[in-house]
Amino acid sequence: MKDLEDVVTKDVSLSETSSESTEDEREKESTVCLRTKRKLLSTKVIDAWQPDSCKKPLVSVRRLSRNELVQRLSEKSTDASKDEQKPKPRRGKRKWTDELDQCLKDGVGRHGPGRWSRILMDHDFEGRTGIMLKDRWRVLTRNHLV
Q1: φ/ψ (deg, to 5) at 47
Q2: What separation in angstroms does the CA of 12 have from each of 3, 22, 61?
Q3: Long-range contacts made by residues 103-106, C-beta under 8 angstroms, separation at least 24?
Q4: Are 118 and 112 within 8 A, CB to CB?
Q5: Where does this protein have compositionally biased stretches of type Basic and acidic residues (predicted)?
Q6: What are the boundaries of each domain within the chain?
Q7: Which helix (H) or strand (E) holds 4?
Q8: What is the pLDDT of residues 55-80, one digit of tens each?
Q9: Which has more confidence, 18 or 126?
Q10: How many Å apart are CA 36 and CA 19, to the nearest integer?
Q11: Which long-range CB contacts under 8 A does 107-111 form with residues at least 24 apart?
Q12: Residue 87 to residues 78, 84, 90, 91: CA-CA distances in angstroms?
């Protein structure tokens, strides 16, 4: 703090002693000494949210006549029948054949265990996934068929 006071007093003493300094130099010296701290964030509120109105939203309810009610219900029932689609029936469990087991053994011999997607590309496993191949391989190794 003393350093700052020394600088200010030196600037003031220099400006008083030198008679040759012009007004522009005096303004520069005074602005250098009297600078305020810069603020990182602006304190002005630029975009303040204001509600459109104080009123709460209002919903008006109108009673339907019997004819309108029947008409709307019939429209909904026809739309619902169009949107309803029966789910596809699940396929039953398909057993692993000896040929599929042999293809799996060949694929594991060629690509190694754990490369189920590559093994799937080599042979046709009738819609089975890599996880199904992994499970079958685990069963084969457990039963010592490999």
Answers
A1: -120, 85
A2: 14, 14, 80
A3: 104/133, 104/136, 104/137, 104/140, 105/140, 105/146
A4: no
A5: 73-87
A6: 2-32, 98-142
A7: helix 2-17
A8: 666 666 777 788 888 888 888 766 55
A9: 126
A10: 28
A11: 107/133, 108/137, 108/146
A12: 19, 9, 9, 12
- Token pair, residue 94, equals 């398909």
User: Which residue matches tokens 């089975």?
Assistant: 128
Domain 98-142 annotated CATH 3.40.50.300: no
Q: For tokens 């619902």, what's the residue? A: 80
Cα–Cα distance between 111 and 140 in angstroms, integer?
A: 17
- Extract the tokens encoding 37: 């701290």
Q: Is 126 left (phi over 0), alpha (psi -120 to 50) or beta?
A: left
The tokens describing 78, both together, are 């026809």
pLDDT surpasses 90 at 87: no
Tokens 């057993």 belong to residue: 95
